[in-house]
Amino acid sequence: MTDTHNTLSFIKQQTEEATATATATQRTQSMRLTPPAACEVGRDPVEIVTSRMCALCTKACATRELGGRLREAGLRPTRQRLQLAKLLFSNGDRHFTADILHEDAMRERIPVSLATVYNTLQQFTQSGMIRRLALDGQKTWFDTNVSDHHHLFYEGDDAIVDVPDGYLTVTRLPPVPDGMEISRVEVVVRVRRRDESR
Ligand SMILES: [Zn+2]
Hints:
Layout: H1 2-33, H2 45-50, H3 60-72, H4 79-89, E1 95-97, H5 98-107, H6 114-126, E2 131-132, E3 141-143, E4 151-154, E5 159-162, E6 188-191
Parallel strand pairs: 4-6
Antiparallel strand pairs: 1-3, 2-3, 4-5
Helix pairs in contact: 3-4, 5-6
Zinc ion binds next to loops.
């Protein structure tokens, strides 16, 4: 009886510690991935987009979870889709282009062509797993965070970060034609480095 009780207490303690560690890790990741814009002035914004966390993704459960996520989105979990999904979803939300994802894949020695990356991103977008961002320019940017939010785009540096909650509110939306409704309001605030020589 006492042994059983002790064992149960031990398991409970271990579980609580593991949960606390996981929560702390998540908090660290989200803070590092979505820092307040004001804190990043003067730093290299590209770091925000491409920085890597320690790999929770190496845990065995990650692939299984991603397989379920792909199936829920109506996609067969092929090896390539799983490998690319793992790069995209294992380290918190991120903004990326097809080129960035392809470079990540090459770095991780995942044999995938740029064309396949484009096709996969198309499928992920159509299934609602990721969102294509409304940015003009030569590159198409994607976001793993599909909830409604706004962005800061760093012109010249080719980097994009989320506007922190509470900083941008659209109050006077325009009327829309009969039979239409607003599906989403997405604001992009473009910033560039000041020309200090002027
Ligand atoms: Zn975003």
